[in-house]
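Retro notes (design track)

What went well: tokenization of the new backbones is finally stable.
What didn't: we kept losing track of which sequence belonged to which structure.
Fix going forward: every design gets posted as structure first, then sequence, in one message. First example under the new rule, 257 residues:
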């Protein structure tokens, strides 16, 4: 595995960790190994992109680490909490209190205003929003003049900004994005990626996103590459060109170089 030299600076704490993580579907001849003993750390106050060919296991890895999917063996921790030891209600509470999610399809409720969508997870949990933090998040994503609008009154980029603000508003320990710019045009996608980048730089947030777009990956501090359910490379300080070159190797060889 070839890895570029990490950024210089003090070591940061780990927001999430997978250790020897495996995910197997089916049995016998129909068995599919989606993740094959993957070990990876996601550090606090960093933006990590997960990339790889179709079927490489990148979305499965994110879903398992985020507590959205079960795993066959190994270990996943969010902070100091081991996910495998949690019962369903405990896992639901952890996802609600410590994790933020940004999905490709936005997942906004059409009957609620932008502000109501942003505060919905906290409303469900019976917690009041930190007004100062909420105003900072709303200001960062540029939604102050759109809070009373419903999703149908917003552009795609504005809807995704609402989704970003919703993920940030509850001060989660880590945010997971599944192709967060996949349904956006290039300009709107760049805006959303800029907001995620700023949330890491200015708010100290931790973000992990799955993407197939080298331009999106270039916003990350680090890119982790998967192939055949295994981590095969990681690059620090990526550029769109360096990521594209790495992905071309997958396309050309159908395997890691």
């Amino acid at each position: 595995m070839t890895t570029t030299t990490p950024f210089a600076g003090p070591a940061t704490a780990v927001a999430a960790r997978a250790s020897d993580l495996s995910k197997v579907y089916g049995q016998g001849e129909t068995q599919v190994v989606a993740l094959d003993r993957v070990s990876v750390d996601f550090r606090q106050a960093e933006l990590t992109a997960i990339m790889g060919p179709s079927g490489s296991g990148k979305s499965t890895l994110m879903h398992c680490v985020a507590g959205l999917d079960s795993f066959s063996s190994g270990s996943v921790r969010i902070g100091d909490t081991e996910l495998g030891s949690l019962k369903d209600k405990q896992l639901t509470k952890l996802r609600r209190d410590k994790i933020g999610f940004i999905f490709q399809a936005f997942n906004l409720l059409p009957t609620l205003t932008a502000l109501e969508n942003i505060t919905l997870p906290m409303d469900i949990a019976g917690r009041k929003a930190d007004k100062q933090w909420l105003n900072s998040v709303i200001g960062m994503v540029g939604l102050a003049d759109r809070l009373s609008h419903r999703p149908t009154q917003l552009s795609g980029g504005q809807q995704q900004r609402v989704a970003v603000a919703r993920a940030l508003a509850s001060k989660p320990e880590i945010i997971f994005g599944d192709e967060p710019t996949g349904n956006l045009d290039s300009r709107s996608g760049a805006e959303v990626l800029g907001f995620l980048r700023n949330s890491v730089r200015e708010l100290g947030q931790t973000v992990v996103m799955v993407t197939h777009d080298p331009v999106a990956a270039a916003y990350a501090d680090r890119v982790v590459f998967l192939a055949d359910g295994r981590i095969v490379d990681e690059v620090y300080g990526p550029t769109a060109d360096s990521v594209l070159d790495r992905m071309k190797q997958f396309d050309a060889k159908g395997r890691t170089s």
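Added context from the reviewer: The chain is about 35% helix and 25% strand.
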